Amino acid sequence: MADSLVLYRADGSRHEPDTSVVGTLGLAHYSGEIQEEPLRELRGRGGINTYKAMANDAIVGAGLLLIRLLIRQVPWRAKPVSGGAVDQVASEYLDSCMADMTDPTWDTFIDDALSMVMFGWSAHEVLWKIRRGASSDRARHSRYSDGLVGWRGFAPRPQDSLKRWEFDDEQRLAGMTQSDPVTFEELTIPADKLLLLRVLGHKGSPEGRSILRPVYEPWFYKTQVRRFEGIGVQRDLAGTPRVTMPMEYLDPAMTGPRRTARDEVFKIAANLVRNRQAFVAIPSDCGDDGKPLFTFELMASPGARQFDTGAIIERYNKEIAIAMITDLLLIGHEAVGSFALASAKTNLLGYALAAYMDEIADAINRHVVPLLFEFNPGFRSEQGGPLTALPTVEHGDVETPDLAELGAYLSALTLTGVDLTDTETQAFLRRAAGLPERPADEEAAARPVVPEPEPDDPADGEPEE
Q: Is 121 helix (H, G, I), strand (E, B) or coil?
């Protein structure tokens, strides 16, 4: 039967839906650069450089490092869609592809992928290989020699190498064009080879939204206050220079040796720093009245500052940590905060980290896993039947449950008669407690055996003679 979109109303008249695209995603972009960001300094290459500078801040850098370290220790594994033999084999094959990655390895890929937290997005080129065992050819080298197509790796394509984004006629992403920093050659990666990870995608923008975007304003003003604070401390310790000289030396039109002498004195006063310039040399000539033509002295600070810069910087640090959901870093630094509060904030951070990992898993399961099995058409038939559905890549939990609380909860469930002996619950409890997995033969023996229904007796229901 031919594929048709022709429908019929109740009265029998034909009705064909309009499949054309009329509207637009509304994404503002020009020459491949996204223009959605209202601040010019956070657009394109300027925004990437700004986020790099922000990562050097103590609070920002600690928050980013905390996110990376917490996610790096989370396990990843393939999950079968069912307990069927074919689905189990497919899941094991997907696991083997993850473990067989070399350019980069899976753990390194996760670390590279987390750059999306700082920049709002990360791009990776999907590299394939034929599994031919040990080989000098990187497109064939593998720890397996089954001849199946596997993942060579998800190679990072850094944010600062982006030249422009490519879009199709419907304003959807068609590819990413890079500029090689060595050869300056432009390289375009098509969308079907691109694994794009984003944080909070909007209007189909390939750049998402950086976690540092709401941090920019407090970081900017904190940086300015710290700079002014440094200048103030320097002036308080060294004193503020005061220079006096005859009026004619201040004439803007003055030239010759007098102007040279004036400029040199101005330069000395502007650059005076204790331990860097321990003395000042000025002319000793006197005027007609017998007073020195030049004088140089240091004025002491008039007293305490009107603003407490320490309190201002501390306030900005709190705003930065709150915006990054990493304010648990500040608990205890001011003799405030409780264990319960820290636990609540840790749970909130755990939800955020789970969302980042969900984005990674979803992009792989939606784009790369289907291609993996599409490139291996003989896999299903060789395993004895079709797959129920494709296996998926999933991540573990960021937080390990408290064993005392978990034990009390399980005890309460047991008293109410809840059965906790099924294999999935047992496997979860072993992982939570850090215990080794149950051997495969024991696990198979522990599975409940469902008795087959007995055949119907034709004599049932008939009266006895």
A: strand
One DSSP character per residue, 399-460 reads: SPPPHHHHHHHHHHHHHTT----SHHHHHHHHHHHTPPPPPHHHHHHHSPPPPPPPPPPTTT
Cα 89-95-98 angle, rounded to 5 deg: 150
Tell me the C-alpha distance between 409 and 405, whole Å: 6
**DSSP element (H, E) containing 157:** strand 149-157
* Residue of 361, 348, 363, 438 whose CA lies nearest to 398: 348
**Inter-residue contact 127 to 195 (CB < 8 Å):** no
Residue 167 pairs in a beta bridge with 173
- Distance, in Å, from the CA atom of 15 to the CA atom of 67, rounded to the nearest integer, reads 54
Q: Name the residue with higher pLDDT: 432 or 391.
A: 391
CA atoms within 13 A on the CB side of 427: 11
pLDDT in tens, 341-387: 445 556 778 888 999 999 999 999 999 999 999 898 766 555 556 67
Tell me how far CA of residue 222 lies from CA of 64, 141, 320, 439, 456, in angstroms. Answer: 18, 51, 10, 56, 82
pLDDT at 259 exceeding the cut of 80: yes
Question: Domain locations in the chain?
Answer: 38-215, 240-299, 402-433
Contacts for 248 with CB less than 8 Å, ≥ 6 apart: 254, 258
Token match 């909070």: residue? 200
Query: Residue 284, CB half-sphere, CA atoms under 13 Å: how many?
Result: 1
The whole-angstrom separation of Cα 350 and Cα 315 is 24
Which DSSP symbol is given to 160? Answer: G
What CA–CA distances, in Å, run from 65 to 57, 71, 112, 157, 400?
Answer: 12, 10, 13, 21, 19
- Beta-sheet pairing, 7-8 with 162-167: unpaired
Q: Count the Cβ atoms, other than its own, within 10 Å of residue 316.
A: 23
Structure tokens at 91: 């899941």
Judge residue 215's burial from the number of C-beta atoms within 10 Å of its C-beta, 0-12 exposed, 13-18 middle, 19 or more buried: buried
Number of other CB atoms surrounding residue 131 within 10 Å: 21
Q: Which single residue is written with the structure tokens 């000395």? A: 268
Question: Do residues 140 and 89 touch, judged by C-beta distance below 8 A?
Answer: no
> Is pLDDT above 50 for 205?
yes
CB atoms within 10 A of CB 67: 22
C-alpha 366/C-alpha 295 separation (Å) is: 76
